[in-house]
Amino acid sequence: MVSAPVQVAPPVEAPARARRLPRWVAPVAGVIAVVVLYVAFRGKAVLPHDDDATLFHWLNDARDWVDANRNSSPIFLYVVNYIRLGAAGVYDAIQAVLVALGWPGLLGLAAGLGWLAGGWRIALVSFAGFAGVGVLGFWEASVETLALTLSSVVLSLLFGIPLGIWAGRSPRVRRIVTPVLDVMQIMPTFSYLSPMVLLFLIGPASATIATMIYAMPPAIRITAMAIERVSGVAVEASESLGATGWQTLGKVRLPLALNTIMLGVNQTIAAALSMVPLTALIAAPGLGEDLLRALARVNVGAALVPGVAIVLIAIVLDRMTRAAAQRREGGTRARAVRWGGFAVLTAAGLALLPVLAQDFPEQWEVQIVRPINDVVDWIEAHWYTFTGFLNDAVAYGLLNPLQDVLTSAPWWLVTAAVLVFAWRVSGMAAGLVATACLLCVAALQLWEHAMETLTLVLVASVITIAVGLALGVAAARSRWFAAGLRPLLDAAQTMPSFSYLLPAVALFGNGRFTAITASFIYAVPVVARLVEDGLRAVPGTVVEAARSAGSTDRQLLWKVQLPMARGSLLLAANQGIVMTLAMVVIGALVGAGALGYDVVAGFAQQEDYGKGLAAGVALVLLGVMLDRITQGANGRRSPHKKRNA
């Protein structure tokens, strides 16, 4: 039997691989489409600002209802008023203790706490810092600022540390708390003030509560992180010996996490001290009052001196808490030396109290306002050509054109462009959140002022990120440059945000560019640090492999280090933009206008309260939009990875 020949089927050709368009085609097409639509619809469907908007009147009516029912509504009688009285009681108690100590007792206590935290060096820094405040002539106002800061920190830690412990032990609680903390940290400081005035009136109580809310997120986050990172082996060993959950927490988790929790205390104090001067807008006492009066008179010298006093307090508290966080427990002799030094220094200060006057001696004060103003006058006379050129170049070359585009474009076109950009950069969720934020801003009837604020933020962010990137790259590539830059970054990060207005006013006077300069000084240190850390974290083996392949320094940077540090670079951009927004809004105090001015006007004039409250909400929405876009980009795969997928 002859078998039939086997027929072999012809080979099936693989389908031709679809040709893909270059990656740049879609973005360029999108930009062209937006430009065409802008030209076609320019000036149409815009939302001009209206100070007499219905929403503002409705919010004013809500404020009037609250004022009328403050002493009759159960919510105020049994909740809000007791919270206000409790916060006021904490502030009054701490202020009474600080005042009773007098300047000798407070200097002795500061030196003693410094010795206890970090030895004689920190004791010397603490003594010199508080003595410097007295020499500047702002002892009484500094004590009020210190009392407000400490009362806010005490309340922040009282609620923040237990909540952080809970979040560190429960993933479910952490998932619930994290988005709330994100919003709290994104919110510009101005946004906290209007609701506080509505609920708690003006004064130290509302200032304490506002500062507490602003300063609490670091305490919660860092405590949760510290508890979560405690060695599982130590916890299991404790539980295997029969310890209860509370015993394990008190004897294992908290002792092992204590140093990290102290870093949270440090960050909480720094956040509180940056917020406290701003609460002068709601009649809080302290150095913020002197600073606001001087800024209103454009008296740089009178503004700089209380600013320096705030910086000195910040440095003392920062060094003290950092030393406590980094301290290593010694033996019995070391503990005896620490506590003995604390007792001697504190007792010495208290012993001098009956001998010396309670008020800081006026003859020891140094007046430096006039010399500072003389320097400012010299700068204005000799640097005007440069500062004026820089101011005009940014205003006419960047600010005015961008602001004209954003305010004359149809609101739907701006919203659609943001949706597409956010979707492409950070994904669908970020795009929808950004769109919702812009729609809410439009509903608040503050579109035009929001676009003016967005203009300032975008221009300031571009300048800040560019300079921060350059400094970070230089620091990562040169240890000598990094060593020289580090003290400047440390000092800049210690300063409260209010202090950044002073050099900007001295150089450029009042105006939008002053706000941009202040935000640049405020945000550049964080951007530079994150960029440097990201580049230094690139594995050395990868760098050596690139060098052995013949890469130049420039190729190594652009093709290896920057792509591998993408996460740190995007985090730097995120932090730079959020911090720039916070500082640009404060720039309303020096003539930046826009939403920041609306918030300030809401404090100053009763009829503008509704507009100020709505502006605070609009600032939060802008912050959430910008944060979601930049944070979401970090979760997306890089274009290089997409091409190789």
From TrEMBL:
It is found in: Cell membrane; Membrane. Keywords: Cell membrane, Membrane, Transmembrane, Transmembrane helix, Transport. It holds the Pfam family BPD_transp_1. The chain crosses the membrane at residues 24-41, 93-116, 122-139, 146-167, 192-215, 261-284, 296-317, 337-357, 430-447, 453-476, 569-597, 609-626. It is a multi-pass membrane protein. Gene3D superfamilies: MetI-like. It comes from the Bacteria. Residues 142-321, 450-630 form the ABC transmembrane type-1 domain. Belongs to the binding-protein-dependent transport system permease family. This is ABC transporter permease subunit.
